[in-house]
Design brief:
The protein has helices spanning 2-25, 31-56, 58-77, 82-96, 99-110, 113-144, 149-152, 154-168, 182-201, 211-233, 247-276, 282-331, 339-367, 370-410, 427-432, 435-467. By secondary structure, the protein is an all-alpha fold.
Length: 477
Amino acid sequence: MLAMFMNAIEGTIVSTAMPAIVSDLGGFSLYSWVFSSYLLMNAVTVLIYGKLSDLFGRKPILIFGIIVFLIGSILCGFAHTMNQLIIYRFIQGFGAGAVAPVASTIIGDIYEKKERAKVQGYLSSVWGISAVMGPALGGLLVQALTWRLVFWINIPLGILSMIGLVLFLHENVSKKKPEIDYGGAALLTAGISAVMIILVEGGVHWQWGSWKIISLGAFALLALFLFVRQERNFPEPMMPFEIWKEKSILLANLVSLTTGIMIIGLSSYLPAFVQGVMEKSPTVAGFTLTSMSIGWPIASALSGRLLAKIGFKFTSIIGGVSLIAGSAILVLMKASFGPLLAASGTFLIGIGMGLTSTSFIVLIQNTVEWERRGIATASNLFMRNLGNTVGAALLGGIMNGTLQTYLHQHSDRKSLTIDDANSLLNAKERLQIPYKLRHILQEGLTISLHHVYLIVLLFAAVSLALLLLLPKSHKID
């Protein structure tokens, strides 16, 4: 629970601090890379850690991940350029990949089927409660002290969680001769990295039909094709495709992919809208995300009872409807509506995430045995992390491309670029921008984020459509 607390607070506290980080370090066009670099390593390593925890036990893998995560956090706090921060976020993500899947798997190990739904709900609630603190704490640290503390705050949490694991987690593991799928990990990393670069840079720095985009696209397809072939032939694959043959697991993983795209679009770009367009403080921007983190634990706590009474399908469908309602509010959002409306939209999305994510973890852990539980749990979290990774790149590309097009069309001086939006995120610098240019930048940011949330709404609709296909028979025995 302490490890999940650390992982959760990292996600929301950095999102809230990003406008201040960009204002200090510059490089608004690199905004999405700060998230993409972290999420890429998180997405790829989550499968490796899940497999290693099945081979060597949960405790050593989780402790290793926490140590690497803390090293990355310390380095992030010392970054002096956006490029340095992006590199250090790779290291942080490499460690973070162990935290959520192994912690969730530990719950599956030490509780029986009837208890899992309730306890996984509690674990998700802790994630949500810790995330409630993240945006508010991030806003306060940025305003009162320095954004660097948002990374260093992880250090005591990580140390406490490791002490707790060493003292209290005891497991008897029959260790196997490790057959680690390094080839599969390398191919998946290469393929996802190529896709991410295409989505971020396409239409912004590179033309969609350019040789760079075409070459990277061909490389991504080849790498992913070879990855699938590797997984089918390797004795202990990092992604065992047989667990996907179960229809409910397949649908749960696909919905985790779509909701992962949604959640990164919400947490990454809403603070920029609240601060840059609504002209509110970092603390207020944090509040709009905090409401999501209030809805999430409430729904997670209720999900255990709902799963027992109405089953996985109907619990998940209620969550899917809530995702659409929250996304629709964000699509209709304008600067004049104020942050309360934005907060109501994120609250509903939090309800949807709490109901669906808890249902999926319990469903998957009830379907597989101990030997597959680590990798099966990791596969679901991998799909959500993959959604985060693709979403950060896709939505970042949409935002940059739309903003760049708008600025070129409406600016008197063609030199007005995406990076000029940096000044919107700093109250003092914003006041120094001539009114006309400030209006153009704010309108451009509003329109580009409107496009982002239209895509978020689309993925919410896809999520609900997939949830409607879940079998009715899955209930807790």
